[in-house]
Each structure stands twice: as C-alpha cells, then as structure tokens.
C-alpha cells in the first residue's frame, strides 16, 4: 500500500472498511451477551425470592464468573480478526521493517536475561509481539504478564505480579563487560523488602552528577567505570525524557550487548473493547501511540549512534 501521510488517513482509507465489518460482529456479541445476562439476572432474582442471602451471594458470584468466561468465549473470533487485520497495518505504518505477531511474546529466557526482576517465575504469558530493525538497531518488544506464587494467610498459593506491561529489547551495539541497572527508587525498596537472605544483588550503587535523574532513578552496577561510561549525561537526559513521555516508573538494564526496558501497565493495551464502538478513531490512535512508544526507543535513547563496537 502507499504509505498514508498520517494516522487519520490510515484510519479513513485503509482501516475503516475492516472496522465496519468488525463493528457488525461487535454488535452481535453485545446483543447475545445482554440477552444471556438478562436471563441469568431473572434466575438470580428468582433465587433471591425463594432462598436466603447465602444462596444469593453464591449466585451473584457465579453469575459474574460465568458472564466473564462467556464473553471471553464468544468474543474470541472478533478479537482475533482485529489483531490479524487491523493491528499489523498500524505496526507497518510505524515502520515497514516491523513485523507483528498477535500471539507471540518475548521469550522467557530473554526476559530473565535482563536480570531486572529477581523472583523465580511461575506464570509467564504475553502477546502482541513486534520484531524488526529501526535503522541499524534490532529491536523486539511485547506485552508480558509474569507472576510468582506466594503463600497467602490461609496457606493457599496466591499469584503475585512480578511484571505486567511492555517489555523492550534492543541491541545497544556494545558487548558490555558488566551489568548496569537503572531502576525506580520505589522498585528498589519493594525488591529489597522481599529479599532478606542476600541472594540477589544489583551491584554497587552508582553516584551520578544529574540531580534530576537521581531524583527518580537509582543506578547500580558491578562495573562502576563502565556504568558511568554508559550513563553519559546525554543518555541520562534521554532516559529522563522517556520517563516523562511514558508517565511510568520504567526500569532499564544494560547486559551483554542489549538494553532491556520494562514499562509497567495495569491494563492490556491492544485488546479491542467489546462495549465500545469500532467506528471511532480514538482506540486506533491509542494502539498507534503505544506501539510507537516502543519503536521510538531507538531514537529516544539514540541507539543508532554507534559510539561502541561489539567485541
């Protein structure tokens, strides 16, 4: 296709015909869901009339759980169509070298390689994987949802979030000798409070001459000289700007020949909304901005400037 001049043209000329078909499907799904929900509400009301409050509570819980799984079941095809027909066009508009895969995600070994998150991983899932090359820099990113099991007050295993959000990996064009971390202060306090036996360390703290940077981040490394070389005044300013751009408590590590960046989000960023019209450009703009946020890391952190060469 000829490259659209802006996201509005992409929406109007390339995405709208497909979105109209998806809107028809969305309306069918909501109609079925509402009809089934009304039937279940009548059943719950009948139980409320015939039985005591305990039965009502159980019935309401079952209704909520059943409604969630029913909606997930009937919307599967709709979500799949959106992700295979709409999102690839948005990613290609950002850069033709980028390839989108709706069900793939960053490999667990790559995530662990970042060494940002110390917990053993019990649940590791993700989706919306993008891979390609921006300039001379290879990148990949996806949504991830990682958890570990904790023992709750009742003795049962409870899943706890390790990381949920966008995870980015880029080739930083240099084989680092050590490992350097740039982490939010709140993240450090949270991790340290959970690690009592000294089994995990980010290295020694690196003191840097940038008060604005150190206001939001704590830097650690097992190679102080290299860490100061990596975290140049220019890069610190760029990381500060990226933090402001995301509005999130981002974490970074520089290990091997890669830079890893974790941007936390509580919600799924690329799922179509069932109870929101598809004939509205705003959800498309939101997806575009979230994809572009990651693709722009190369420019934001100036990764294409090859000031180092791999050994």
Model description:
The model has no long low-confidence stretch (mean pLDDT 86). The chain has helices at 7-50, 53-74, 76-85, 87-94, 108-113, 185-194, 211-216, 224-230, 233-246, 281-295, 297-300, and strands at residues 99-101, 123-134, 137-151, 157-171, 180-184, 204-206, 217-221, 251-255, 258-264. The chain has eleven helices and nine strands. It starts with 6 loop residues before the first helix and ends in an 11-residue tail after the last helix. It is α+β, with helices and mostly antiparallel strands and 311 residues long.
Please render the helix and strand layout as text.
Elements: H1 7-50, H2 53-74, H3 76-85, H4 87-94, E1 99-101, H5 108-113, E2 123-134, E3 137-151, E4 157-171, E5 180-184, H6 185-194, E6 204-206, H7 211-216, E7 217-221, H8 224-230, H9 233-246, E8 251-255, E9 258-264, H10 281-295, H11 297-300
Antiparallel strand pairs: 1-2, 2-3, 3-4, 4-9, 5-7, 5-8, 6-7, 8-9
A few lines on this structure:
By secondary structure, the protein is of the alpha+beta class. Helices cover 47% and strands 23% of the residues. It has a nine-stranded antiparallel β-sheet.
List keywords for this structure.
about 300 residues; alpha+beta; 9-stranded antiparallel sheet; 9 strands; globular
SSE order, one letter for each helix or strand? HHHHEHEEEEHEHEHHEEHH
Q: What is the number of strand segments? A: 9
Structural class: alpha+beta
Mean pLDDT: 86
Q: Can you summarize the main beta sheet?
A: 9 strands, antiparallel
Q: Reading side by side through the largest sheet, how are the strands ordered?
A: 1-2-3-4-9-8-5-7-6
Which value, in Å, is the CA radius of gyration?
Answer: 23 Å
Number of helices in the DSSP assignment: 11
Instruction: Give the overall form.
Output: globular
Q: Report the β-strand fraction as a percent range.
A: 15-25%
As a percent range, the share of helical residues equals 40-55%
| Uncertain residue ranges | none
Question: How far is the first residue's CA from the last residue's CA?
Answer: 40 Å
